[in-house]
Amino acid sequence: MLKSLLAATALAGAAFGGLPAFAQDASTVVATVNGESVTLGQMIAMRQGMDAQTTQGLPDTALWDLMLDQMIRQTAVAQEAEPLSKRDTAALEIEKRAYLAGSVLEKVASAEPTEDELKAAYDQAFGGQTTPKLEYDAAHILVKTKEEADAIEKELKGGADFGTLAEQKSTDPTSGPNKGDLGWFQAEQMVPPFAEAVKALKKGEISAPVQTGFGWHVIKLIDSREVTPPKFDEIKDQLAVQVRRDKVQAAIEKRVTESKIEKTPNLDPALLNKTDILGE
Fold first, then answer.
1. Disulfide-capable partner of 278 in 78, 87, 99, 111 (CB 3.0 to 4.6 Å)?
2. What positions does the domain PpiC occupy (predicted)?
3. Are 66 and 54 in contact (CB under 8 A)?
4. What is the C-alpha to C-alpha distance for residues 278 and 50, in angstroms, rounded to an integer?
5. Rounded distance between C-alpha atoms, residue 15 and residue 34, angstroms
């Protein structure tokens, strides 16, 4: 009777990848490669990390065989790296930290945002705005001195092309190569002197030189438009993404703030170039 029961249990296990039913846990060995174990836990973790399109339509048996074959090959090749070099050890530690940090933050981001959190994000984004707001599309040429800005203004009045001058003379590394274009923005997003100058311009007009903490600007208003804030229900999905991002950022800041961090002083940044420290 006991033998029959054990035989039935073994058969049931065989239906699940050939594993005994009473031994199926994360440490269950599914294969060994030169004495190194490949475990059921590793297989499941690998399965969780696979793209859904890769596994779509594959029966469990085929997926099992495919994954186990890959795990065996990977293990056999990886063993050639033993003993680990300093470079390999350092790289694996980086990968470990990245994975564990990602795992922690994934749990933070997985929580479904509440309605109150979504509404708070909406209010933060639009500040209770119910009426249309003006947005501006402008370009600028940024230089260091008023003399340079005056010279640029003179060239523009003489018929020079604004975009060409921006590419040639603007010190703004972002907008300069793009003919000075700043894209669409609301005036409140800019420093006050710049914002006031933009609001005073008509479409196509170019400002006199304007000074801010960044230098001297010559500004051209390309266009303006009225923008009505979207309704709450229309952007709930986007708000959920933002809430999750904010939670992740807050979790990072909290953990860093609570950590005891000690930086070794007086290390030369040029040490980054001493690749020989890692050896072969």
1. 87
2. 133-223
3. no
4. 32
5. 27
Other Cβ atoms closer than 10 A to 14: 12
**Class of CATH domain 18-82:** mainly alpha
Q: Could you state, in order of their start, the residue ranges of all structural domains in the chain? A: 18-82, 84-130+232-252, 132-227
Contacts of 136 (CB under 8 A, 6+ apart): 184, 185, 186, 187, 198, 199, 221, 223, 224
Show Cβ contacts of residue 166 under 8 Å, excluding neighbours closer than 6 positions: 139, 140, 141, 175, 176, 179, 180
Strand duo 29-33 + 36-39: pairing: antiparallel
Question: Which amino acid is present at 114?
Answer: T
Interaxial angle between packed helices 60-78 and 40-48, expressed in degrees from 0 to 180 and rounded to the nearest 10: 110
Amino acid at the residue 50: M
89-132 confidence digits (pLDDT tens): 999 999 999 999 999 999 999 999 999 999 999 888 887 666 78
Neighbours of 215 (CB within 10 A): 18
Q: CA 176, CA 181: separation in Å to the nearest integer?
A: 7
Assigned architecture for domain 132-227:
Roll (3.10)
The most distant pair of C-alpha atoms in the chain lies apart, rounded to whole Å, by: 105
Distance CA 92, CA 97 (A): 9
Helix (H/G/I), strand (E/B), else coil: 111: coil
Query: Which tokens sit at 59?
Result: 């029966």
pLDDT digits (tens, 9 = 90+) for 154-211: 999 999 999 999 999 999 999 999 999 999 998 988 999 999 999 999 999 999 999 9
Q: What is the mean pLDDT of residues 233-256?
A: 94
Nearest to 188 by CA among 180, 179, 196: 196
